[in-house]
Every structure is written in structure tokens, then in C-alpha cells.
Design goal:
With 360 residues, the protein is of the alpha/beta class. It has two domains: 8-122 and 279-286 and 302-356, D-Maltodextrin-Binding Protein, domain 2, CATH 3.40.190; 124-266, D-Maltodextrin-Binding Protein, domain 2. It has helices at residues 8-21, 49-62, 75-84, 98-101, 140-147, 157-160, 183-195, 219-229, 264-272, 313-327, 329-339, 346-356; strands at residues 38-44, 66-71, 89-92, 114-129, 136-139, 174-178, 215-217, 233-238, 247-252, 275-276, 287-288, 299-307. The strands form two sheets. Strands 1, 2, 3, 4, 5, 6, 7, 8, 9 and 12 form a ten-stranded mixed beta sheet that branches.
Length: 360
């Protein structure tokens, strides 16, 4: 039975109705006279940069004696920083794996394990820069072949067959990928392995497969800049990080069904059809994304990775308050104009907020 009884329609309704009425269990905007003080250091996913900017600013306004830092160095860097204790929390476009959960985490009480809380849901856009072409339709097979280096020219008949009436230049394709360990890469490759398994035979990974060449760039902003400044370039990035006016690919599984684009509604549909991973602690909300359950598979869920119990209770109190705000109705909706995220709703929202409230 699906535990995530949410839907794109509910997301839209929530966005309309809750903007005026404000927050849920983590609401802090009315916290005048807040007694919270101290500093938190977060490191992690660059996909969450825009959302974190909003969350930090609003939380600090409500709690003027608190400083929240977030360094968008990438998901891999965030997980490493959280493990070694140089970060109080990590932002990651994937949850910790089972083998990682058993490691020692410097900030956590010895013998306890961290928890993974999804706080940011967003589509991954496939962006391109091709003179004279503003819109492009691509199937799962063609996208996989482009990034695997099997289709190397924009004039390829497989691309032309999906774009009737579009004049495609005789120009080499330059795929752009993340050069750093990236949760966006892991989600993108996970999508390809599910929708085009005969072409994309590599396992999902935060590191770009060495067998598939292309141009590497650091972070979301690096990929976007490389695509913008190139010619015949194509890459992938969280929608919050792409520049206004950039061209994005419309997707169809087989090139016959309706084409869909990267929207928050698309992302919400995938999460709606996904399940909580079994075998984790009750407060851990790691999800197993079913990317073939809806029209647009290129979706990421970013997690706040935190201690269930911090060795320093003062840090635990701040993390509790901040993550509770981030996961609240108010926090989720506040990020939408800048980040374009799909707000948490339904059972997922309630579960994440209840788990955040137990952090100590």
C-alpha cells in the first residue's frame, strides 16, 4: 500500500491556500522574542542552494541570535562533512546507504544512528544550447544514447524523427556532466537506468561513469554555465539552478506518448507513487523512488541528514528548530517562488515533521 497519499493537485491547492495562513508544526515567523541562539553549519547539495537561501534568511529573521550557514559544495561533500563533524547537518540528493548508516558520526551520540529527512522535492531539467532550436523532444532511449556517447551529432536521424519540422544542425553534441560527486548525478543516472536499462547499463552513482565521456563541470552552476557558454551542449541540473530562458528538453518514454517537461507537478507525481524504504528506524524517511510510475522520471529528493541525538544538546535544539521550520508548510511554500520545489504534503509531510520534532 502506498504510504504517500499525496498528489500534484494537493500540491497546487496547498500552494494557494497556505500562502496566506502560514505554517505548521515548525512555524517560527511569529517567534518574536526567540530564545534560540548559536550557529549551525550545513554542507551539501547545490541543488538546494536557492531553497536554503530562503530558509536561512527567514529563520534568522525570526531568530536573530541564530546564524545558519550552508555551503553548497555538493551532496558527497555534505555527507563527508557530516560524518567527520565539520558540519552539523548535511544536504544530500540521496539518503545515506545502509552501509553508511553504521559508520561513526562525530556530532552524534555514540551508538546512535542519523536520520534522513526529505525536505526538498524537485525535477531535474535536461538543458541544451543549440543555435536556432528553442524546443526539443527526446525519448528515454535517445537521451540515454546521447549521454552514453552513442549519439554524437545533433543531425542524427533518431533525434530528427522526434522533432518533425525542426532544423537540426550538423553539429557535434557535447554532453555536460557534474565533475564532483553529486546527488543530482545519482538521481539522473538512476532515472536513465530505470527508463532505458538496455542503453544505460551503468549503476546509479554520484560519480559520472568513466566509460562515458563529455565535459565535466563543478556544481549545478558549473553545469549551467558550461551549457550556456557552449555550442551544441546538453546537460542536466536542478530546475532551481537553471538560468531564465534556458531551453529544456521535453520527455516521452517512447517518443509516442505525450511529451512532458520538468515541473514541480511532475516531481510530485513520482514521489506520490514511491514508498518509504523498509527496515529503517521509524523516524527515518528514506524513499525508494519509482521513476517509471509517472510521466517525467528525472526527479530528485534532497534530504536533511541529521543526528537523531546530538552529543551537544544545544546543537540538537537548533537543528530541531531549523529542520522543523524547513519541513513546515510555511517553510516549504516560502521556497517555491525561488526554488520551484514541490512542497511536502500528506503523510510524507506529517511524518517528516514528526521526526524532526524528535531531534535532540
Amino acid at each position: 500500500m502506498n504510504i504517500l497519499r499525496t498528489g500534484a493537485a494537493l500540491v497546487a491547492i496547498a500552494a494557494l491556500t497556505l500562502t496566506a495562513c502560514g505554517g505548521g508544526s515548525g512555524d517560527t515567523t511569529d517567534a518574536t522574542g526567540s530564545q534560540l541562539s548559536g550557529t549551525l553549519q550545513g554542507v551539501g547539495a547545490s541543488s538546494m542552494r536557492a531553497a536554503q537561501e530562503v530558509w536561512r534568511a527567514r529563520f534568522q529573521t525570526a531568530n536573530p541570535n541564530v546564524t545558519i550557514n550552508y555551503s553548497p559544495d555538493g551532496s558527497g561533500a555534505g555527507r563527508t562533512a557530516f560524518m567527520d563533524g565539520s558540519a552539523d547537518f548535511a544536504g544530500s540528493d540521496r539518503a545515506l546507504k545502509d552501509e553508511e548508516m553504521t559508520r561513526t558520526f562525530a556530532k552524534c551520540v555514540e551508538g546512535t544512528t542519523p536520520i534522513n529527512l526529505p525536505v526538498y522535492i524537485s525535477p531535474i531539467a535536461i538543458i541544451f544550447n543549440l543555435d536556432g532550436v528553442e524546443a526539443l523532444n527526446l525519448s528515454a532511449e535517445v537521451i540515454a544514447k546521447i549521454f552514453a556517447g552513442q549519439i554524437t551529432n545533433w543531425h542524427d536521424p533518431a533525434i530528427a524523427a522526434l522533432n518533425d519540422g525542426v532544423t537540426l544542425p550538423n553539429l557535434a553534441i557535447t554532453p555536460v556532466h557534474r565533475s564532483d560527486n553529486s546527488g543530482t548525478t545519482e538521481n539522473f543516472t538512476a532515472s536513465l537506468s530505470q527508463v532505458a536499462p538496455q542503453i544505460w547499463t551503468e549503476k546509479a552513482s554520484g560519480d559520472w561513469p568513466a566509460a562515458f565521456q563529455g565535459e565535466g563541470a563543478q556544481g549545478t552552476s558549473g553545469v549551467v554555465a558550461a551549457v550556456q557558454n557552449g555550442s551544441g551542449t546538453i546537460g542536466y541540473a536542478d530546475v532551481s539552478g537553471i538560468a531564465e530562458g534556458m531551453s529544456t528538453v521535453s520527455y516521452s518514454l517512447d517518443g509516442k506518448a505525450d511529451y512532458v517537461g520538468p515541473t514541480a507537478e511532475d516531481a510530485a507525481q513520482i514521489v506520490e507513487a514511491s514508498e518509504k524504504v523498509a527496515g529503517r528506524a521509524a523516524n527515518d524517511w528514506t524513499l525508494e523512488l519509482n521513476r517509471t510510475a509517472a510521466g517525467y522520471p528525472f526527479v530528485l529528493v534532497s534530504y536533511a541528514i541529521v543526528c537523531q541525538e546530538y552529543a551537544d544538546p544545544a546543537i540538537g535544539e537548533l537543528v530541531n528548530a531549523y529542520v522543523s521550520y524547513v519541513a513546515s508548510d510555511e517553510g516549504q511554500l516560502a521556497a517555491v517562488p525561488q526554488a520551484g520545489n514541490a512542497p511536502l504534503t500528506g503523510d510524507l509531510a506529517n511524518g517528516v515533521r514528526a521526526a524532526a520534532a524528535t531531534i535532540k
